[in-house]
Queue: 2 jobs
Job 1
Amino acid sequence: MKTFNITTLVKEVQPDELDSADRELIEAAKQATARSYAPYSKFHVGAAIRMADGRIVTGSNQENAAYPSGTCAERTAAYWAASQYPDMAMKKIAVAAWTRQGHDDSTPDADCFQAMPISPCGACRQALLEYETLHGPIEVLLYGADKTYVLPSIKSLLPFSFTEF
Ligand code: THU
């Protein structure tokens, strides 16, 4: 028998360790949370994608009374980006989220961001991996108020993935 490890390199950073373009991308993800439609979970997620030409495309989670019909911020952003710019690589994605749960009424929404980074669900990883396979690595910035995680690719979030048949 043989065993092997699959490792993921995660950098833990503070905003001042990021360059201004990455800070801008995180800020866009944070601002996108304001356009989230999350009356059911009350968990507001924003995603911002840096496209190869430098533009930023954003998305937010969009929930539905028929719960499974809702979709995550990451897929909203990725599908919007891919449908507008089918031949353009997505270079980087930033994700941020907040909820009022656990905060008192006097706390402004802007101070309710998750302390720890949130990480895309399995379905979003699979969806993003498709575009990464087409156009090359998509770097990942997972924002948390206490720390931000930086990962080199979607693949690093989804090892042993299903990419072709
Ligand atoms: N959600 C996202 O938008 N992105 C994630 O990475 C995790 C979860 C959304 C889905 C749902 O609207 C709410 O957050 C609670 O799960």
Job 2
Amino acid sequence: MRKRIFQSICLACFITLVLSTVCITGVIYNDLAKELKKEVENQAMYISKAIESADDAREYILAIGKESKNRITLISSDGTVIYDNYVPAEKLENHLSRPEIQAAIFYGEGELTRLSETLGEKTYYYAVHLKSGMVLRVACTVKSIFGLMKGVAFWIVLISFVILFISTLIARIITNLIIRPINNLNLNDPLSNDTYEELSPLLTRMEKQNRKIKSQFDELSARQKEFDYITGSMNEGLIIFGENATVLSANKSAKKVLGNILGRSYLQACRDVNFIKAVESALGGRSFVIKTNINGRVYQLSANPVESNLKSYAAVLFIIDITDKEQAEKMRYEFSANVSHELKTPLTSILGYAEIIEKGIAKKEDISRFAKQIHTEAARLLTLIDDIIRLSRLDEGNLIQEVEKVELSGLCKSVIDELSEKAKNKNVKVSFEGGPAAVLGYRSVLHEMVYNLCDNAIKYNKGNGSVIVKLEDENNKIKLSVFDTGVGIAPCHHGRIFERFYRVDKSHSKDTGGTGLGLSIVKHAALLHDAKISLESRPDVGTTITIVFNKK
Ligand code: ADP
């Protein structure tokens, strides 16, 4: 704009300069020519009067002709040139046919202007008819306007350049003055500007547009915030791919899995083959669901195309963490397999012994032993079924009883009482340490928990060993520990002994009537009471299992 204004001003100056030069030159030249004409006419009149009153016209004209800078010609009535102060009269042809002479003979005076383009001159002739019948002609030659211009062309060009240079400087200053208010416009608040009136409609429109843009922007940010809030609180990862297969948006959960992938192409976002397959399929217009393993966790990827006018141009990918679900599935599968196996073993023995007795193959003295065996296996089966039912109830949280305040010291003492016979048989001394400590919980579940811990502590103890059940009430926590001086557990088993059906020594556990579910029940019971369970054990030294309850 600045350039345009500057150029326009310069052009206007140039045109003005040229026009004014031409006009002024024309006017002055015209004026000069008029003056000249008048002078020539006056001279012709004076000379004609003088000739008419002079005694010797020829003498007089000779004297005047020498002095005059104008051309003076005296022509006889037949057109013969009598005298000419520029050219000898005899060399001149007859002038009768000349228009100014003809006019002078007919009208008393005649004039003619002749232009010589080659010489760039203009000659003005003025002829007067004398009373004697002769014709006096006075002529004056001046440069034509072009000739005049030619002569002063250098000065005209020089002056024009100077004027143009000054005009350029002025044009620059004027341009700056015009542009400055436009440059200083406050576009954020267009109506606050005190500027050219002509800009008012533009500024009003700008103000309207600013308001519209602001309201649209506010709406968009509100929507974006809403979208971020919704997707940010989602557990599922959400990634939106644009038309060019780059990540347009990724929520917090997606970034947790894949890092900051904003702006990256899907190939750079994740190298996982299934991820690439899913995104490519959705970008190609087909939905795709697949499970995959990323950083040791299992995810379900669900990719869907985003379509517009039946042309697929983007994709949305959901990433759902199904690691826990998968683990639970696996555990359920293993549990059912283990349950069938565990049930099968005692049932096979029972069937075997019963068959021998039924078919009369068993010797009479063995029948009572076999019956005892059937009894033991059936009891084991019952214990196993009881444990499975308990565990399932804990698993499902399917408990009929209400939460109550349970005094753990009394509960521990009653468990010790229940197991005293067993302890006596194993020659293990069981004792209780600590004072009263109550927790909020399910009495039967807590009883089961303490019972299983003490039962194990006796079961896996050595002769003359001891078991201590200790209760501590400190720092808003209640700590229940069961120490034993038993066989202990090797460190390699520590991570697994709370798993269902996991036993360190299978044969020994079965001999002692273990189902492999005792500690699993303890773990679930602890979880149900929001308590933390920990294990310390050294082979041949003993084991301590501690459960820490939060006091409520
Ligand atoms: P089980 O019914 O076989 O006792 P548990 O779930 O109660 O099953 O225990 C799992 C395994 O942990 C047991 O087989 C046993 O090897 C080991 N274990 C549990 N408690 C003790 C303990 N106090 N001392 C030594 N080993 C133990």
